[in-house]
Amino acid sequence: MRINKLYAVFVLCITVSIASAQDKSLTITLGNIKTELKNSALNLGIQYLVSLDSAFKEQDILFTGKKSLFQISPEFNIQTGTSDAFSAIDVKITGVALLFQTVKIDGVITPDTKKLFHAFPLSAGIETNNNFDYVNAICEAGYVPWYQAVFMSKVPAWLKKTKIGIFLQGGYKFNLSISDSVNKSGGDADQSKENTDKGILRTKGSFGINTQELINLPFIKIGLAGDANGWYDILNKTTYFNLEGKLRFFVGKNRYFDFVYQKGSGAPNFNKGDQYGINLTVGF
Fold first, then answer.
1. Whole-angstrom Cα distance, residue 60 to residue 57?
2. Alpha helix positions (H), 64-204
């Protein structure tokens, strides 16, 4: 019993130590952008995400095994705005199984921090746009290697600033539109080949990088962040992608300005347009 308690304390300590260098779970973004139709628009983003390299929060459900941890938490990501700004709402419940090797240290079984950890996220939720013209009921399973922890000394520092993942997504697209056709143009248009009242089956690959504070000047700190996502629509034999790059200026604790460029809206509209502008993000 004592060994189990020490093991649990060790796991909590190492996960808490990781969290200190990470973004906060809840972020709110407000900015001004140029849309696909070259309109000036207000951009709003709200995100709650418990990342794999963040501490397991007290409100999360956590199960522990001899060589595994399991965490369940809600996630949501909302991007919306005025005019024809990109539109996406993603709400889901995610469970993450984290598998690792163990070693004995002074007779206590602990995770082997010199070995790669393996994360297997499982999610169920919905995707829609801000007009709720349709709702995608989606289940997702994936694999994400976890190598970002500070105690993984064999991993290069630059590599710890990246993240990758592969996923399989399946579900159903429900039509909620009152009219037979929805006339939209620009960045708010649904350009997905996925038909309403039909099934959904996709693969997804993701890559992200966040340098945090790359340049430290006396009066400001500067960093870079970016994400690249690609989908293959198996049922309709087509591909979609989303690219986002940010030049980040830190202006205080958990506050920063981003000069941002985004090509492609990503799920669920899979709009091929682009938008760019400046955002202020606050983390909580």
1. 5
2. none
* Residue 108 vs residues 55, 62, 153, 174, 220: alpha-carbon distances, Å: 22, 21, 21, 52, 45
Q: Say how many C-beta atoms besides its own lie within 10 A of residue 3's C-beta.
A: 12
pTM: 0.85
What phi and psi values does residue 13 have, to the nearest 5 degrees? -65, -45
| 46 has a pLDDT exceeding 90 | yes
Domain ranges in the chain are: 2-283
* Structure confidence at residue 19 (pLDDT): 35
Q: Which of 61, 62, 65, 53 is CA-nearest to residue 7?
A: 65
Per mean pLDDT, which range of 4-8, 173-177, 250-254 is the poorest? 4-8
Architecture of domain 2-283: Beta Barrel (2.40)
State the first-to-last Cα distance of the chain, in angstroms, to the nearest integer: 37
**What are φ and ψ of residue 18, in 5° steps?**
-70, -35
Residue with the larger pLDDT of the pair 10 and 54: 54
What does each C-alpha distance from 250 to 245, 253, 278, 279, 283 come to in angstroms? 16, 8, 13, 12, 12
* The pLDDT of residue 169: 98
Distance separating alpha carbons of residues 179 and 272, to the nearest angstrom:
24
The 8-class DSSP code of residue 3 comes to H
CA–CA gap between residue 230 and residue 207 (Å, rounded): 9
Place of tokens 């985004």: 262
Give the single-character DSSP code of 66: S
